[in-house]
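Example is below:
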Amino acid sequence: MGAGSGRCPVFWTPGVHCPTITNVTSSFEFNTYPARLSDAERDKVLKVLRDGVAMGRLSHDTFVRRMELALIARRSDELAVLTADLSQESRVSRLVFGTVEAVSGFTVRLRRAWQAERLPKLLLPHPGGGHALRIGRDPANGLRLTHETVSRVHAELSRQGGMWVLRDLGSTNGTTVNGRRVIGAAVVREGDQVGFGRMAFRLAVN
């Protein structure tokens, strides 16, 4: 058999048997691997694990071990088993906590509205008056408040550029609008809750 027959090595020694090579490709196996897990899939699992620690469902050591396994996982089922005992509770907990938060927020708003209605009214001066309303303990003020937490000259309410402006005049115990302390001045409107020291009012036009 010659070297150019295509069935032997190029360098062939006479007298040496040359084996016949058949079905070359059938002796190879091509392994296929699942697609690489995305970072989003891993992040989702890590978040569930962190929530489990925060809620006391996982110990710190268990969390660390599962986190390590999540980082080296190659298949989706390997990730799923790490949160199998947490996912359902996490969904229920989010639903419960979300409902509680919504109810709590509504309750706070309702309580504030109820409190505002019970506050004494502070009538806004007539817009055409042109004079600022001084508020404080001094008898010369347009609105005299005798409470000990009110400064002698505490605040001033005036009309500027078509808006009502409440200005703190360096009071000791502060001026507030809807629970927030006024630094300098703040724009106010009908229905706002204003406070001078520990005295509170609801602004009204009549």
About this structure: DSSP finds four helices and ten strands in the chain. Strands lie at 121-123, 133-136, 143-144, 155-160, 163-168, 175-177, 180-181, 185-188, 193-196, 199-204. The two ends are 119 Å apart (CA to CA).
